[in-house]
């Protein structure tokens, strides 16, 4: 593991470094920030005191399943709990939970330069619209993070799955930022319209709740045909609801969305053959929702499986498995005991 240097930086058109602020520096925000800092980018992280204390003591470490392992000394990490640092930001990367989007938008409006670019790197499909309503003078870009990042404690954030960042930018105002991401080995694909990409990512994120309920690593969960049966039903319901609403989820990985339930239903030997060619998952990877339950935090269930339930209700389509999963996650939130560690049969049973 090597410490990073701050040399050879991509300069902005003015000859100065692009000033980037990450608002909501949790697992995703710290990982993105660390990778950018590792290439000398000018990044300030805004987050919780708990994470600030970890980084102050241990530095900021970012690793991934491919072998990336960056250790950035604490003295080279600008981490704060103060929102006022947004006043001179050129770019704000918004990485807060979807339930905090409105309050985050109000903070950006109060503290940030109205000429700043705001990129929403959040789960769900509604955040971009909400940000545009609250930030009418800002340039708001919708984004998507395809991979999972696990906080391993002591300022260490580990990316356990693959995929390219996505940014909706029809006017190509984010070219410099995209170049920085590419340089930091965080390749970003730019789209004119990201809507179907977000719905495609939502399909993949529906497994977050199943993983959180199971309490086991993603690789172990997906290696269990009974948990995959649950996921196949979850995905079929979601695709039925999307089809009824005229939504065509885009392919965000190597699997075409409509084939996902079929792949989840394959016996182990066939699934393993397909997975080895299409899925890259670290044995340590877990969903962010599992981490939320472990830390006693409110999850994003309303913006994931809950989004499917809401869509299905509008279209008159039954989604009993997604509805049950929403209820189970909300109960786990109330219990505040971490993952309930449910078996596939317990997730599927009709009566508590």
Series of H and E elements: EEHEHEEEEHEHEEEEHEHHHHHHHHHH
The amount of helix comes to 40-55%
Radius of gyration: 20 Å
Average per-residue pLDDT, rounded, comes to 92
Largest sheet: 8 strands, mixed
Give the CA-CA distance, first to last residue. Answer: 48 Å
| Bulk shape | globular
Strand content: 15-25%
The main sheet orders its strands as 6-3-2-7-8-9-12-13
User: What structural category do the secondary elements indicate?
Assistant: alpha/beta
Number of strands: 13
Spans with pLDDT under 50 lasting ≥5 residues? Answer: 2-15
Q: Number of DSSP helices? A: 15
Quick description:
With 352 residues, the protein is of the alpha/beta class.
Can you characterise this structure?
This protein is of the alpha/beta class. Helices cover 42% and strands 16% of the residues. The chain is built from 15 helices and 13 strands. An 8-stranded mixed beta sheet has the order 6-3-2-7-8-9-12-13, with helices on both faces. A 5-stranded mixed beta sheet has the order 1-5-4-11-10. Helix 3 (101-111) runs parallel beside helix 4 (127-134), helix 7 (207-214) packs across helix 12 (288-294) and helix 9 crosses helix 13 (305-315). Mean pLDDT is 92; it is low at 2-15.
Structural features:
single chain, 352 residues, 5-stranded mixed β-sheet
Secondary structure topology:
Elements: E1 2-3, E2 19-23, H1 27-37, E3 42-46, H2 49-58, E4 60-64, E5 69-72, E6 78-80, E7 91-94, H3 101-111, E8 117-120, H4 127-134, E9 139-144, E10 149-153, E11 156-159, E12 165-168, H5 175-183, E13 188-191, H6 195-205, H7 207-214, H8 218-222, H9 225-244, H10 260-264, H11 268-278, H12 288-294, H13 305-315, H14 320-335, H15 344-348
Parallel strand pairs: 1-5, 2-3, 2-7, 3-6, 4-11, 7-8, 8-9, 12-13
Antiparallel strand pairs: 4-5, 9-12, 10-11
């Amino acid at each position: 593991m090597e410490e990073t240097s701050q040399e050879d930086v991509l300069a902005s058109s003015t000859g100065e470094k692009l000033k980037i602020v990450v608002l909501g520096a949790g697992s995703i925000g710290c990982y993105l920030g660390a990778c950018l800092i590792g290439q000398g980018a000018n990044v300030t992280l805004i987050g919780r005191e708990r994470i600030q204390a970890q980084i102050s003591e241990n530095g900021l470490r970012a690793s991934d399943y491919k072998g990336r392992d960056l250790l950035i000394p604490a003295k080279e990490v600008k981490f704060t709990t103060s929102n006022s640092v947004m006043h001179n930001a050129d770019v704000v990367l918004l990485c807060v939970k979807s339930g905090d989007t409105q309050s985050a938008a109000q903070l950006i409006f109060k503290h940030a330069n109205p000429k700043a670019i705001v990129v929403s790197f959040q789960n769900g499909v509604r955040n971009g619209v909400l940000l545009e309503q609250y930030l009418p003078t800002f340039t708001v870009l919708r984004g998507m993070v395809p991979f999972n990042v696990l906080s391993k404690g002591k300022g260490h954030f580990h990316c356990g799955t693959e995929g390219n960042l996505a940014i909706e930018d029809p006017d190509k105002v984010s070219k410099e930022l995209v170049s920085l991401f590419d340089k930091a080995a965080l390749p970003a694909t730019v789209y004119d319209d990201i809507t179907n990409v977000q719905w495609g990512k939502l399909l993949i994120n529906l497994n977050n709740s199943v993983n959180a309920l199971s309490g086991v690593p993603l690789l172990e969960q997906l290696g269990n045909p009974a948990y995959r049966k649950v996921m196949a039903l979850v995905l079929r319901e979601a695709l039925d609801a999307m089809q009824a609403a005229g939504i065509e989820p885009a392919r965000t990985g190597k699997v075409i969305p409509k084939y996902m339930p079929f792949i989840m239903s394959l016996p182990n030997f066939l699934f393993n053959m397909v997975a080895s060619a299409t899925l890259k998952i670290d044995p340590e990877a877990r969903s962010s929702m599992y981490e939320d339950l472990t830390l006693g935090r409110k999850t994003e269930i309303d913006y994931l499986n809950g989004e499917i339930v809401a869509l299905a209700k509008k279209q008159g389509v039954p989604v009993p498995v997604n509805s049950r999963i929403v209820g189970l996650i909300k109960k786990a939130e109330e219990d505040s005991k971490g993952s309930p560690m449910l078996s596939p049969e317990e997730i599927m049973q009709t009566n508590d």
